[in-house]
Amino acid sequence: MTVHEVEPFNAEPPRSALATSELTPVDAFYSRNHGPVPDVDARTWRLRVDGLVSTPLSLSLDDLRDRFAERTETATLQCAGNRREGLAAVRDIPGEAPWGPTATATASWTGVALADVLAAAGVQDAATDVEFLGADVSDQADPPQEFGGSVPLRKAGMPEVLLAWAMNGEALPAVHGAPLRVVVPGYIGARSVKWVHRVRVTDAPSSNFFQASTYRLLPPDAEVTATPGEGVELGLVAVNSDFLAPDDGSEVPAGPTRVSGYAFAGGDRTVVRVDVSADGGATWTQADLAEQASTWAWRHWHASVEVPQGDVELLARAWDSSAALQPERPEQVWNPKGYVNNSWARLRLHGV
């Protein structure tokens, strides 16, 4: 793993670790944290469900397993800062981790539908949003506070949103949110709150620092502040793609070369096409798309391109089912926090 920070622990795997399987091995799943990994005792842990509900709940893991139907959903999570290094190459982005293209991963998540738990609590008519709070405390906020965020009630009520205790058939590791985490398919990873201990039904989006002040898209000329409500709140993931193999900077035989990668679109959109170019976009080869494990998962792709002798830069671009296309250049999407770099993917190779 490339470790961007030790405390809080933030790390991403090499491209090759994501290239061989639709499901990402647990030990290769990127880790994005805002505070120290909390030490949560699953035996005494309880999930509190309150706010605008008729019957507040306090649930143990056994309660969740016994009272609600188990569900498994395959879903991709992607950090809002994925591919930030491409934006930092345009202009400096101080104070932010230089994420490469692998702050994204896919797992099979097992738990219970959040909608079933909310139904048991009885959501009141005035409710519009559902907020999650984790046990991790971050000093990025002043004063320090627990990491949290919310999604609209209409999303929280969808069957794919889980309170998950397992990934890829194994119990959640501590670094990935044990004993329980939220999984919100189609939304930025920050909404899939780890170590969740409270679900609160509200009549407004979360005022938590990490939603109201941090995960916001600012205009290119904006000054970075912690002013609540500044910029655009991040939610659904924009269509994106990148190369996974060969690795960037690889030396390969000149001639036909197999390249592969991933593409992903948030919301309920799916990837429908990926193109690859070896001549600066003058001509394109349409990639072959792998079967998609679920509506909420990425698609792996591969293509054969002609690599000339010497240095070459390959390009990749994806379309989603709404006909949205990745923007061409990182300069077009640069912003002072380095979020949502979904410009065309670029891979440098040397043909010999």
Automatic annotation (TrEMBL):
SUPFAM superfamilies in the record: E set domains (SSF81296), Oxidoreductase molybdopterin-binding domain (SSF56524)
Keyword vocabulary terms for this entry: Metal-binding, Molybdenum, Oxidoreductase
Name of the molecule in the record: Sulfite oxidase
Domain Moybdenum cofactor oxidoreductase dimerisation: 239-350
Location of the Oxidoreductase molybdopterin-binding domain: 34-209
Cofactor: Mo-molybdopterin
Leader sequence segment: none
Gene3D superfamilies recorded: 2.60.40.650, Oxidoreductase, molybdopterin-binding domain (3.90.420.10)
Upper lineage: Bacteria, Bacillati, Actinomycetota, Actinomycetes, Pseudonocardiales
